[in-house]
């Protein structure tokens, strides 16, 4: 019923516009809705009546038929009642229809207009219009209502083009054409666009036509072919008036009527009718076989889509019929000699699979045309041509023939960049729990490691034999171990909690002289101790660190000095000369970075304020520069002038570690967001190259210090990646960075993989500390 | 696969050899043999009356530089040759597989092994003093003890511990000087010379090790030791990069020049070592600081005992003239070198030096300066650092290598092929003839991804008594080592 009603509604609208225009040209939009509503209601009523009338007549027809066909059957009472009910309704609605014209609002308006005044004769005998008294009811005064400002009606505005005014208002006054600004004003207007500015002019008022947001939205929706009114839901929720759900407790407890169990007589009647018709031959249930075949044949019709093709301009939508190229010289029966294939070409052509041949033929030379034999491939070629036309593609494919390999940058193959570590050759077992840090001593013979079990161990590098061990703490883990870089001593530093220990491993292969020299270096500062503390802090203030002997038990093991700072130390980095070392405690707020002087037992805190949490710090390998990494940036300070030199911004979210190239101009940064970044310090503060090859956080990055162009990173995904990173001597050239090897072997334990790594001082070997409790030597 | 020659196709072969005593007559060298014949069949033919008329010498056959492993026909097919090709077969006495014989259990890792037998150098040096049948095996362990074993696996003697005049740290190398003298060196930087005496009946003999000399001079762990019993000289290589040259005679050895090296030189050292037995303390004849990375091995020239060769982690092989303590020549290789063995050559004046590298192979170096190519051959096959090498005492062309991958491999230098592109494309390459696995790892599940984890071989010695190897599995393993000479 719905669609039909709207159809009708449209028809009504189409038929009506003349009258609408006449009455109120200006209220077109405003009123149309209410009128529509009214119309639709009206139509609905009409239509319903029609429908009901039809259905009613059908029902009666049916009944008639029923009666005629099965005269012995009496229609049931219920059915009869229903039909009666319908008829009653019909009547009522007819009554309604009679009333409807009275509701029409157009007609009374006109009538009222006529009766609004009386025509009387005045004293002079002239006609006099006597208006009725205005009854001051609620809507008698329409002065508030907006009225059409221009009364000229629906005429082309061009009539007023030559006049200074554009029409008349309700009082007969001229509506002057608003002054149009000159070009400059227009330009200024267009620059300062007021809200809702459209650039259009309302033809009736001559004012600029401004649209508010709602109107714009309306225009947009109309343009997009959507329903103009946003609030109107075209798809309302269905209301299930009649539900298919069977109630457990039906409203009526009446027993099922008998007729529900009996076969429908009405249907039986219809079927009988058909049966009779088939018997008499009026209806043929199947088509005769010949006819069916014919139909099937007819179905397979093909159309030549290029049947009436006219030559046209090339455009992307038009697909021309596939066309054979014109024959070339090589197809000639007597081609020039250079087109004839050489023996090798012929052999090569014959060797190829027919499908892979570039050309399906070979140019051949004949003395005269009559000697040319019949073309053997003609049938095949014609067939293929037909297939081409038949299977012509509807879409033109533009294939990009680029070899994917050519897009990769040209890098030397890893095998040319040997040597670099490739396999694990020694496993150092012994640590209980994670190994957090590992370091190879400056001579390249011993490996030191520290782990969660609170021990520091020293191992023989090649065999993996543990040669020394000390337990520094039973609760806290050894966070980092680092060797003092100078070769004149055998000093190991280790950080456990807030303590930094300096020790001389009592290793049998250390000569007494070297052992003594190392002890002397460590003890030398005790003479300065008091002075140093006074320098380090003002009186009354807590000194930044306490240098002390760790106690006889540890001293026996070779641990000689304990430095207690204010918070947990995570990083130790030595200056190359071995007199200074920096410690970083990320949780230490103001005192997070400390520089310790071994010869004076002095601790200084260089930064009173740091922007961000310090992660790690390192000395420049050649110049008196100091690098401090916070979570996002690396700051470079000049230690002599005491000023900030540079801020490097790797763009990583959380820096885990960095290392400075032994040449001093390059920097690698590892970050917890899985990245490894190469910085050229001279070039930019931004990374020169970003490498995102790990699936987990990068924990440690290290350059090889023994002159080999290698660097490596250790990651929580249990792998180390080895890179070839050659820094050219020429300043203008860029460094060559080639990933050469992924070293797999460490197991991932609790999402931690490789926690630290270190390079051998000379050889292309490296050691790695794993969360799986092992240290591995890769070579 | 079809075998067209089952009908009995024949191949023409030419037998050649380089061994003088088993040469064939000129007329007998060419022969038609069935194509499906194998090594055993060919060996039978050669041993038959009409050919060599010997009593079953097992032969191996070299075809074009590699050993014949299948039938002749398979060889021809694999190389794409026709059956009509004339094949030149070089026959050599075959190596017998080094079957496992025994293991001696230790308390700690075994770092070095040496053997005293009639045929071993120490046995020869002791001359008549050595009694036949009293074969002794010396093992040095990381627990700092030397042990002397008899051939049936009983410990006859043990060196005293550190507090009683023994090594104060792990021993890394030990050798018999003679049947009564032993030299050892280790992480405690000292070389110790021991007097070894035996007493008691043959079934319960007890041996006693008495320190007679402590040699000081090295400033770091001594990784390798080589002795010459005839001239009573010792050669050591230390991690401090120096090569030491020592004598075992108390009288001729110089005094220790640098007293700071002696234990107890600094009173501040907390743990003083109370030594009840004091041996004489002496210094080196010469200490040559010639390497700038840890020196890993030094050996005497097998012929000329005044010449020594040393290798180091600084990639170099150096020839040293011991009389002047000067370096004669230096050869640089491309990898850190960890072990050295001199293979005597009858054809040339200088031996061939086999150097085990950290890059898992063995490089053969010709130390003569006149030769164009220093690296003669590369032996590939190990999966880890090659830390020990020993030449076959019976011939010039085979050697055994011990590696941290837990295997000993036997190599035959006659079997060579040109190097492939992957291997550098230079020189020639050989592959092992036999691989000796650690018996202790038999049947154990491989738990580590690193080869040789837990069963590294630290030392290997080849004597006619057998191939002795000691390793991380705390065992000395003995494999049959008597190869060629069956008589």
How would you describe the overall organization of this protein?
The complex is a heterodimer of chains A (779) and B (487). Chain A has 779 residues and is of the alpha+beta class. In chain A, strands 12-13-14-16-15 form a five-stranded antiparallel beta sheet. Chain B is mostly beta strands and 487 residues long. In chain B, 5% of the residues lie in helices and 42% in strands. In chain B, the strands form eight sheets. A six-stranded mixed beta sheet of chain B has the order 24-25-26-27-32-31, with no helix packed on it. Chain B has a five-stranded mixed beta sheet with strand order 2-1-5-3-4, with helices on one face. The longest helix of chain B is centred in the N-terminal third of the chain and has 9 residues, at 39-47. Chain B starts with 9 loop residues before the first strand and ends in an 8-residue tail after the last strand. The interface between A and B is large, with 36 and 47 residues.
In short:
Chain A is built from 15 helices and 35 strands. Helices cover 26% and strands 24% of the residues of chain A. Chain B is mainly β and 487 residues long.
């Amino acid at each position: 019923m719905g669609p039909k009603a709207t159809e009708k509604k449209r028809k009504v609208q189409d038929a009506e516009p003349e009258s609408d225009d006449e009455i109120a040209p200006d209220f077109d939009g405003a009123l149309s809705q209410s009128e529509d509503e009214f119309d639709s209601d009206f139509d609905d009523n009409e239509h319903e009546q029609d429908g009901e009338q039809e259905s009613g007549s059908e029902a009666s027809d049916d009944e008639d038929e029923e009666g005629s066909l099965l005269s012995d059957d009496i229609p049931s009472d219920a059915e009869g009642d229903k039909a009666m009910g319908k008829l009653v309704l019909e009547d009522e609605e007819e009554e309604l229809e009679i009333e409807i014209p009275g509701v029409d609002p157009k007609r009374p308006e006109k009538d009222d207009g006529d009766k609004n005044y009386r025509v009387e004769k005045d004293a002079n005998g002239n006609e006099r219009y006597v208006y009725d008294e205005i009854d001051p009811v609620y809507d008698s005064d329409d002065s508030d209502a907006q009225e059409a400002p221009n009364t000229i009606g629906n005429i082309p505005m061009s009539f007023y083009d030559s006049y200074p005014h554009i029409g008349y208002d309700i009082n007969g006054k001229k509506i002057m054409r608003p002054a149009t600004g000159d070009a400059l004003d227009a330009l200024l207007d267009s620059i300062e666009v007021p809200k809702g500015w459209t650039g259009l002019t309302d033809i009736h008022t001559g004012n600029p036509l401004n649209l508010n947001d709602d109107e714009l939205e309306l225009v947009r929706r109309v343009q997009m072919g959507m329903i103009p009114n946003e609030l109107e839901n075209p798809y309302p929720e269905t209301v299930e008036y009649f539900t298919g759900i069977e109630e457990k407790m039906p409203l009526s407890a009446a027993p099922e009527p008998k007729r529900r169990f009996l076969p429908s007589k009405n249907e039986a009647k219809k079927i009988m009718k058909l049966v009779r018709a088939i018997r008499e031959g009026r209806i043929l249930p199947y088509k005769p076989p010949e006819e069916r075949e014919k139909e099937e044949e007819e179905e397979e019709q093909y159309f030549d889509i290029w049947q009436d093709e006219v030559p046209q301009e090339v455009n992307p939508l038009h697909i021309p019929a596939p066309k054979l190229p014109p024959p070339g010289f090589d197809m000639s029966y007597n081609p020039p000699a250079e087109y004839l294939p050489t023996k090798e070409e012929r052999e090569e052509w014959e060797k190829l699979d027919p499908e892979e041949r570039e050309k399906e033929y070979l140019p051949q030379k004949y003395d005269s045309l009559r000697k040319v034999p019949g073309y053997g491939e003609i049938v095949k070629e014609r067939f293929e041509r037909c297939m081409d036309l038949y299977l012509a593609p509807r879409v033109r494919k533009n294939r990009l023939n680029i070899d994917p390999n050519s897009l990769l940058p040209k890098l030397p193959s890893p095998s040319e960049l040997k040597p670099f570590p490739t396999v694990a050759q020694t496993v150092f077992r012994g640590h209980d729990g994670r190994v957090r840090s590992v370091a190879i001593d400056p001579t390249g013979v011993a490996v030191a490691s520290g782990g969660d079990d609170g021990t520091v161990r020293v191992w023989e590098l090649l065999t993996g034999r543990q040669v020394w061990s000390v337990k520094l703490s039973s609760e806290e883990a050894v966070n980092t171990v680092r060797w003092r870089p100078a070769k004149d001593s055998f000093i190991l530093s280790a950080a456990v909690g807030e303590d930094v220990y300096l020790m001389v491993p009592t290793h049998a292969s250390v000569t007494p002289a070297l052992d003594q020299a190392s002890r002397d270096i460590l003890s030398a500062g005790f003479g300065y101790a008091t002075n140093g503390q006074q320098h380090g802090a003002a009186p009354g203030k807590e000194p930044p660190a306490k240098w002390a002997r760790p106690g006889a038990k540890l001293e026996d093991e070779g641990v000689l000095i304990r430095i207690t700072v204010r918070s947990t130390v995570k990083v130790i980095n030595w200056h190359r000369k071995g007199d200074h070392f920096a410690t970083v405690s990320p949780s230490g707020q103001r005192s997070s970075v400390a520089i310790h002087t071994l010869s004076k037992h002095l601790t200084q805190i260089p930064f009173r304020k740091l922007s961000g949490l310090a992660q790690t710090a390192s000395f420049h390998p050649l110049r008196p520069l100091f690098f401090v990494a916070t979570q996002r940036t690396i700051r470079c300070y000049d230690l002599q002038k005491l000023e900030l030199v540079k801020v490097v911004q790797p763009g990583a979210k959380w820096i885990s570690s960095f290392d400075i190239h032994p040449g001093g101009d390059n920097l690698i940064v590892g970050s917890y967001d899985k990245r490894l970044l190469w910085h050229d310090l001279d070039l930019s503060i931004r990374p020169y190259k970003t490498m995102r090859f790990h699936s987990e956080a990068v924990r440690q990055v290290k350059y090889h210090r023994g002159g080999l162009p290698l660097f490596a990173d250790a990651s929580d995904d249990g792998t180390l990646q080895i890179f070839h990173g050659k820094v050219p001597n020429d300043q203008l050239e860029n460094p060559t960075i080639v990933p050469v090897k992924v070293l797999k072997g460490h197991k991932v334990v609790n999402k931690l993989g490789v926690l630290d790594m270190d390079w051998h001082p000379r050889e292309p070997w490296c050691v790695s500390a794993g969360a799986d409790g092992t240290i591995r030597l890769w070579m | 696969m079809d075998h067209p020659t089952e009908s009995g196709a024949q191949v023409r072969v030419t037998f050649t050899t380089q061994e003088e005593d088993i040469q064939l007559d000129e007329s007998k060298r060419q022969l038609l043999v069935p194509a499906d014949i194998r090594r055993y069949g060919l060996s039978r033919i050669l041993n038959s009356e009409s050919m060599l008329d010997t009593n079953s010498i097992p032969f191996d056959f070299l075809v074009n530089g590699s050993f014949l492993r299948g039938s002749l026909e398979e060889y021809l097919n694999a190389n794409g040759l026709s059956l009509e090709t004339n094949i030149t077969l070089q026959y050599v006495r075959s190596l017998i597989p080094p079957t496992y014989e025994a293991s001696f259990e230790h308390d700690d890792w075994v770092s070095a092994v040496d053997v005293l037998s009639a045929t071993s150098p120490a046995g020869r040096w002791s001359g008549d003093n050595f009694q036949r049948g009293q074969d002794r095996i010396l093992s040095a362990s990381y627990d700092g003890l030397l042990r002397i074993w008899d051939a049936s696996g009983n410990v006859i003697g043990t060196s005293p511990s550190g507090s009683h005049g023994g090594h104060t740290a792990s021993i890394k190398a030990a050798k018999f000087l003679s049947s009564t003298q032993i030299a050892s060196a280790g992480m405690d930087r000292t070389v110790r010379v021991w007097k070894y005496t035996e007493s008691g009946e043959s079934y319960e003999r007890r041996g006693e090790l008495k320190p007679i000399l402590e040699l000081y001079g090295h400033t770091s762990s001594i990784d390798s030791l080589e002795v010459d019993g005839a001239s009573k000289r010792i050669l050591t290589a230390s991690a401090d990069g120096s090569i030491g040259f020592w004598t075992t005679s108390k009288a001729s050895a110089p005094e220790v020049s640098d007293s700071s090296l002696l234990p107890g030189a600094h009173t501040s050292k907390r743990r003083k070592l109370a030594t009840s037995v004091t041996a004489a303390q002496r210094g080196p004849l010469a200490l040559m600081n010639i390497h700038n990375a840890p020196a890993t091995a030094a050996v005497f020239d097998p012929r000329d005992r005044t010449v020594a060769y040393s290798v180091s982690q600084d990639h170099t092989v150096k020839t040293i003239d011991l009389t002047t303590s000067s370096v004669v020549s230096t050869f640089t290789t491309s990898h850190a070198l960890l072990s050295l063995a001199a293979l005597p050559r009858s054809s040339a004046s200088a031996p061939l030096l086999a150097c085990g590298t950290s890059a898992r192979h063995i490089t053969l170096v010709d130390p003569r300066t006149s030769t164009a190519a220093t690296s003669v051959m590369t032996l590939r096959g190990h999966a880890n650092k090659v830390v020990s090498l020993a030449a076959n005492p019976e011939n010039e062309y085979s050697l055994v290598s011990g590696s941290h991958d837990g295997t000993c491999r036997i190599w035959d230098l006659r079997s060579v092929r040109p190097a492939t592109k992957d291997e550098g494309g230079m020189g020639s390459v050989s592959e092992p003839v036999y691989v000796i696995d650690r018996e202790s790892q038999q049947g154990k599940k491989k738990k580590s991804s690193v080869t040789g984890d837990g069963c590294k071989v630290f030392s290997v010695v080849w004597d006619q008594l057998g191939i002795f190897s000691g390793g991380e599995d705390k065992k000395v393993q003995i494999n049959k080592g008597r190869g060629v000479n069956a008589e």
